[in-house]
From TrEMBL:
Keywords: Phosphoprotein
InterPro entries: CheY-like_superfamily, Sig_transdc_resp-reg_receiver, TCS_response_regulator
Biological process according to GO: phosphorelay signal transduction system
Residue ranges annotated for the Response regulatory domain, each copy included: 12-146
Keyword DNA-binding on entry: no
Cross-referenced PROSITE patterns: RESPONSE_REGULATORY (PS50110)
Residues carrying 4-aspartylphosphate: 79
CDD domains the record matches: REC_Rcp-like (cd17557)
Name recorded for this polypeptide: Response regulator rcp1
Keyword Hydrolase: no
Length: 163
């Protein structure tokens, strides 16, 4: 164990995003902003729900999902418009479950509809970020998200890793 690992648990980033291009841009640009935490990516809300609430022990790799750590060790980046189960339902389930309610959820989506923004905050999202449609603006928004993740305060014993 390195000295930095002894300080606290590394927080994993769970990206729930159905668009492969957006997912690649988010991870790549968070890395460029200095975030070196582990990433887990799911292409729809059902995969994320299976990961967090599936019937399997913590730390065990079952099927196509990577091992799941203590459920308090994640920050979720959540798209809203996805197939099978949308981001609203994922957010609702995460925030209503005592096991995941304290987990930070950052909605990262293309919609700027005030009703959808209000609904997300009512469901318990911690931060709502609108993904710009224009490529350079999207890259800049993700870069700023990376800087935000570097300074965000997490519960004692948990930390974001910045390279």
């Amino acid at each position: 164990m390195t000295g930095s690992e002894a300080v606290g648990k590394t927080v994993g980033i769970v990206l729930v995003e159905d668009d492969d291009g957006h997912a690649t841009l988010v991870e790549r640009n968070l890395r460029r902003a200095g975030i070196s935490n582990g990433f887990v990516r799911f292409a729809d809300g059902q995969q994320a729900l299976d990961y967090f609430f599936g019937d399997r022990p913590l730390g065990e790799n079952v099927g196509k999902y990577p091992p799941r750590d203590d459920l308090t060790n994640y920050v979720v980046l959540l798209d809203l418009k996805m197939p099978r189960v949308d981001g609203f339902e994922v957010l609702r389930r995460l925030k209503e479950s005592p096991a995941t309610a304290a987990m930070p959820v950052i909605v990262l989506t293309t919609t700027d509809d005030p009703r959808e923004i209000e609904r997300c905050y009512e469901l318990g999202c911690n931060v709502y970020i609108t993904k710009p449609v224009e490529y350079d603006a999207f890259i800049e928004a993700v870069r700023r998200l990376g800087f935000f993740l570097q300074v965000v305060k997490l519960p004692p014993g948990h930390r974001m890793i910045v390279a």
